[in-house]
Design brief:
The chain is an all-alpha fold. It contains four helices and no strands. Helix content is about 70%, strand content about 0%.
């Protein structure tokens, strides 16, 4: 009669048998295709989860980089505006603006021109209405 096929993993079993416990990372591979398919599917789901987390981390990094760039741009614009205002105030001789004047703040800060325009319009409206009554 024909001799049965020898088990290809018999050498590994003989080698690991005397140890009494499996060595980490050297577990006996399974011979069941269903078990292998189950492990492959589990690892694919772990890979998909890790890929999703990696993409979320990349998106967070990109968002923070955009935020940092916006803050640096605003700081740069503010610094250049302040420097330009200082150069303009140093180059124009004359009395310093009176802090009590309504447009003094707008004269020293070019960013407040809409506020100064609204205040001037409100002052004209109040002045014009008061002259008609009196």
């Amino acid at each position: 009669m024909a001799e049965p096929m020898p088990d290809p993993f018999e050498t590994f079993r003989k080698l690991w048998g005397p140890l009494g416990m499996p060595v980490p990372g050297m577990s006996m591979p399974t011979l069941d295709p269903a078990e292998i398919e189950k492990r492959v599917n589990e690892l694919k789901s772990v890979e998909a989860w890790l890929s999703l987390n990696l993409n979320m981390v990349k998106l967070s990094i990109q968002g923070l980089e955009v935020q940092r760039a916006a803050l640096l741009a605003m700081k740069s614009a503010t610094d250049s505006t302040v420097a330009a205002m200082q150069r303009a105030s140093e180059s124009t001789p004359g009395p310093a603006p009176d802090p009590a004047a309504p447009n003094a703040m707008a004269a020293t800060n070019a960013m407040l021109w809409p506020w100064a325009a609204m205040q001037a319009a409100a002052g004209k409206k109040e002045g014009g209405g008061g002259a008609g009554k009196g």
